[in-house]
UniProtKB/TrEMBL annotation:
Protein source organism: Asticcacaulis aquaticus
A Pfam family matched in the record: Cytidylate_kin
A single GO molecular function term of this UniProt record: kinase activity
Localisation: Cytoplasm
Binding positions for ATP per the UniProt entry: 12-20
Protein name (database record): Cytidylate kinase
Keywords for the protein's UniProt record, in alphabetical order: ATP-binding, Cytoplasm, Kinase, Nucleotide-binding, Transferase
Amino acid sequence: MTHKPLLIAFDGPAASGKGTLAAVIARDHGLPMLDTGLIYRAVGFLRAQKGLTLHDVDALAELALTLDLSVLDNPALRGREAGEWASQVAAIPEVRAALKQFQVDFAHQPSGAVLDGRDIGTVIAPHAPVKIFVTAAPEVRARRRWLQLVKDDPALTFEAVLDDIRLRDERDSSRASAPLEMAEDAVLLDTTDLGIEAAIELARNIVKDRRDAA
């Protein structure tokens, strides 16, 4: 049987595990992958570098439109501060609009693609045959993120990371433009009580089932 191009959308809140799962699934199927959160981190990072405020909307939109993707390799984008910056600029409709076409074009490659983010299944690729919404309890997500970050910042407390997670959840879910929400036809994958191997196995099964049904 010949399959159509495979487009897979992973959505979910911060530190849910969606990026890890998306990377594995992309490798499984030999598909290009885009971590859309990273492009928002890049815009947030450049905003801070240039000393722009969140009220400099036109300048921020221009940053997004002219984003040099080589900046995505900067390890600073993986840090706690960059995550907060990303959540801030992602709430600006003009920034989201500027980055939308890039994401849509990535999703429409002939081979298919894997994208992970906050609004892939609802805004960027609502037609994707495979949509997975990955989540976990805030405390579990905070502990995962804290274990990553505390290696470079030993003074960082779990409580501070939990506060960050809750703030980002609120901002991502309540923003006027493309809020974080689960698409009606997405499959929920709750990783609260799952190890990484179990979560990967469930994600693989979801992809197989949805692909076979397409």
